[in-house]
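Appendix B. Raw example, untouched.
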Amino acid sequence: MIQRTWHIWTYLKLATIAAVVVSALLSFMPFADRPHAISPPPIAVVDGEKVDAKEVQLLANAQRAKVYTYFMQRYGLEDSLDFWQTEVGGEKPIQKLKGLTLERLKEIKVQQLWARQEGLIEDIGYESFLQRLHDENESRKKALQEHRVIYGPQQYNADTYYEYVFSNLIIQLKQRLADSAYKPDEEQIHRYYEENKTRYTEKGTAQMEVLFISNKSSQAKELMAMAQQLSQQGTSLKEVVKALTASPAEVQFGEYLLGSKMEETEVSERLKVISAGLSAGQTSGFEQVENGWFMATCLDKTEERAQPLASIRSNVIDDYVHSVYQQELAQRIRNVTVQWDEQQFDKLELR
């Protein structure tokens, strides 16, 4: 009996030692080689780069508002429990969301792969991003505890930090290309400037003063005749208004700066046409609009002109680089290979 008990204890000791040895060996094994470290299948593979479902979830959440707006404006479909599976006009919100998410995923991954190719980033996986997010928030938390100044939010959420990191990466990528492959020579700069000259043209402006007479006035014709006579004598429209003893409901005065951002009205649209035929100091005759008549004086005027290349050279170069970048990006997106698991997408939680 004693001998049997001794064998049992010996077996248990040996089993414990074996377990410790196996555990120690596993701790030195690469994560991917561990028996229990089986990663879930990727929801997508973009040019060989595996994409985590959590990353697609984040991108899908960012597209939800667009889908809601689209179906509300186009079909009047409002949010409901079965919104995503409701078919209307041959379209389903869930399919629209899939399409937008896939397009955004391709756009992002193509540029991340491009940046890695240029040596700007090593790991573009989502787990690596989450680690950077954690480190950034820990750094901000420590800075706040030490009463140091931080810029931006006290803590980033994944959505905001993802866009922040990606935007900065694209800025770095464009700058790297601008200093190397996309660096234009003088001929390219001048050619781009000439081909896009309208982009660098300053709009002409016209400062106008306007006298308006309402068609509701019983003495509209008399007021117009008096205004015309005073104007021909050199009286400014502002003074003409004062001379016309009429109520504000009948006669009004206003100033417009054409070429600036202003509310589009029938008068402003007509003024643009009239100003083209007036020089500074000239006054038009009366023009009829829906609710009355108006006359205008051009006080000052500047013609549109193209800005000299020398004064906007850096802007032209930036625009050139952006144009070349967009062309190559479009080509890369067209050529990208994507494997997409729609069944996994259907299991995502759409918050």
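End of appendix B.
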